[in-house]
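Render this sequence as a predicted structure.
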Amino acid sequence: MSPTVSRNWSYYFSVNSVLPDNMSLPEVAVALNIRLRDVRTLISEHKLLATRPEGPLVVTSDQLVEEDGTWQVLGNLRGTLILLSDSGFSDDEAHEWLHREDAELGMTPMEALRQGKHRAVRRIASGLAY
């Protein structure tokens, strides 16, 4: 990645409050202002969910929230990702479940997590294992 590309991304992410729906790992690193290897660590620690719909790994931007003018990882996502993984969900299956409308929640689990309803999401997710 050339420094010019990195500077362009930094400018984009700091000026605009809307991120692209699917972000490459280098884009996530720039948005969070961390190294690429730290993004990979966030993924391996289940703090971020990366999938490979076509080609390279991508992270959906709904996993990031803007706080005090900077982008941060959605804090209550990790517990849900660990629960889904422990229930036998692959990353692709977890991604699909998080973005599918749930009748009990009245929204997608990801929307509920972004609204701070992590207990309700985890209650539903824990029932999926049985």
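Summary. The chain has a mean pLDDT of 88. The CA atoms of residues 46 and 82 lie 6 Å apart.
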